[in-house]
From TrEMBL:
Pfam families linked to this entry: Acetyltransf_10
Signal peptide residues on this chain, from the entry's feature table: none
GO molecular function, one term: acyltransferase activity, transferring groups other than amino-acyl groups
Protein name listed in UniProt: Acetyltransferase
Length: 135
């Protein structure tokens, strides 16, 4: 699914989409009643992740790789995935969740309680902003 959304639709190079964090991440998957995948996302957390993804704070998790299939967009799948990742972060004792949002998705995350901080940066040629929500 990430390949469909990020690599095919958005042109992110496949070698950038899949990284060493995937193996240790907590992955969530939204599926239709018939088992067809609709969306996915991941949570990174822990001291090793903190040094690179959350400014060195191990109490902050990193939400990422949120992808919803074209057919499922606008149905609440993305919201459900974000909330599931936040619940998983809270269950692991994390105090907040960070993410790097594509600038076109800032409004989506703001509606979910995230606040942007820091400068706009390019990731895989796409403008992004850092965002955080306290749990």
């Amino acid at each position: 699914m990430r390949k469909e959304v990020f690599v095919r639709e958005q042109g992110v190079p496949e070698d950038l989409e899949y990284d060493a964090y995937d193996a240790g991440a907590l992955h969530v998957l939204a599926v239709r009643e018939d088992g067809v995948p609709l969306g996915t996302g991941r949570l990174l957390y822990g001291a090793e992740v903190a040094a690179e993804k959350t400014g060195g704070d191990p109490s902050v998790g990193s939400l990422g790789r949120l992808a919803v299939t074209r057919e499922a967009r606008g149905l609440g799948v993305g919201v459900a995935l974000v909330r599931a990742i936040e619940e998983a972060a809270h269950a692991r004792g994390l105090a907040a969740v960070d993410l790097h949002a594509q600038t076109q998705a800032l409004g989506f995350y703001e509606r979910l309680g995230y606040a942007a901080y820091g400068p706009e940066e390019l990731e895989a040629g796409i403008p992004h902003r850092s965002m955080r929500r306290s749990l």
